[in-house]
Automatic annotation (TrEMBL):
Protein name per UniProt: N-acetyltransferase domain-containing protein
Superkingdom: Bacteria
Record-linked InterPro entries: Acyl_CoA_acyltransferase, Gcn5-rel_NAT, GNAT_YJDJ
Domain N-acetyltransferase: 9-95
Family matches, as PANTHER family: BSR4717 PROTEIN (PTHR31435:SF10), PROTEIN NATD1 (PTHR31435)
């Protein structure tokens, strides 16, 4: 079952993008620098929610938000980096000099 209309929450206090699903909080942790860079450091989807495309959707919506804010992305998380390898159109938001 694919979830489609999940609302992305930018939890600035916890420094993470998150969804709220059935009492669970899949998330992507980030670090924002003062010079408009964002480092996505870790993606976590609770095992109860695995196999539903939630991690992928979380990455997609986070990337859309990052692009909207004109931030430069440094994908330190392997899940995010793998997603960008498969969807090279997102390379344009990656900080120059960073290889994915």
């Amino acid at each position: 079952m694919m979830e489609t209309d999940l609302e992305l929450i930018d939890n600035k206090e916890k420094k993470q993008y998150e969804f709220h699903i059935d009492g669970y909080t899949p998330r992507i942790e980030y670090i924002k620098s003062k010079n408009d860079e964002i480092y996505l450091t870790h993606t976590e989807v609770p095992s109860a929610l695995e196999g539903r495309g939630i991690g992928t959707q979380l990455v997609e919506k986070a990337l859309i938000d990052i692009k909207k804010q004109n931030l430069r992305l440094v994908p330190l998380c392997t899940f995010v980096a793998t997603y960008i390898k498969r969807h090279p159109e997102w390379r344009e938001i990656i900080l120059r000099g960073i290889n994915v």
